[in-house]
Amino acid sequence: MRDAGQQPIQMRLEELKPTQVAVGYDEVEFKRQQWRARTDPEKARLISEHPFPAVRGPDGKCFMIDGHHLGLALLKEGVDVVLIKLVEDYSHMDDKAFWRAMDRNGFRYLSDVPRGELGNAPETLQDLIDDPYRSLVARLRRNCHCPKYAAPFAEFRWADYLRRHIQIEALKTSPDGALKIAKKLIWEGICSLVSSECRCLGPVESS
Questions:
Q1: What distances in angstroms separate CA 45 from CA 5, 49, 121, 164, one per listed residue?
Q2: For an engineered disulfide with 27, which of 113, 118, 138, 204 has Cβ 3.0 to 4.6 Å away?
Q3: What would the pLDDT profile of 112-141 be if each residue is shown by its tens digit?
């Protein structure tokens, strides 16, 4: 890993490359609403204090490894330039070695979202497809006050776990019921193994 003290650098959002295939569109919309509710000084502070972690790859391209939902939300809200913090520089590698290094370090996540032929992540944030289970996980975390885990793409691993147990029809027709089931599933399958402070067995709150 690169020096954690390295200064963030400016970069245009539309030039950042994603390292996942999907986001939860509902969660993107939630973050857009949060952005609109902020004052101009609060917006400026958010941009300056929360650089996006990124990896520099072949041809000098920079790949976002976290914050895809916020990045897409900001892009849709007309934000042009953000800050990034480089965690690795793989610009000396060719494409094959680069993606091998990315996968070895857990910097890319090709989830179980139904899609066409498996390949690299989409080229731009705007190309990310919708994963309603990722939105379900975001709602679950807010509802349970779950801390954000440091492991990259932890929420997508939750989403893929829930995808195998909750039918999409149930998620669409009864979102509160799906949330209640998700709380029990996550507690039994994940939270009890990694967090002694998980509150997923508490009552379902509106969110």
A1: 19, 6, 30, 39
A2: 138
A3: 555 443 345 689 999 998 899 989 988 888
CATH number of the structural domain 9-130: 3.90.1530.10
Interacting residues of 80 by C-beta distance below 8 A, sequence separation 6+ = 12, 13, 14
Q: Which amino acid is at 156?
A: F
Do the Cβ atoms of 120 and 102 come closer than 8 Å? no
- Tokens 């993606």, residue located: 99
Question: Which contiguous run of DSSP H or E holds residue 54?
Answer: strand 52-56
Mean pLDDT of the chain: 84
DSSP code for 126: G
Alpha-carbon span 129 to 132, nearest angstrom: 10
pLDDT of residue 118: 39
**Bridge partners, 55 (sequence order):** 63, 88
Q: Where are the domains of the chain?
A: 9-130, 132-194
Residue type (1 letter), 187: W
22-23 and 129-130 strand pairing? parallel
According to CATH, what is the number of the domain 132-194?
Answer: 1.10.8.10
Question: What is the structure's pLDDT at 12?
Answer: 96
Round to whole Å and give the CA distance between 175 and 154: 22
Pairing of strands 52-56, 62-64: antiparallel
Helix/strand/coil for 149:
coil
- Classified as helix, coil or strand, 88 is strand
Terminal-to-terminal C-alpha distance of the chain: 37
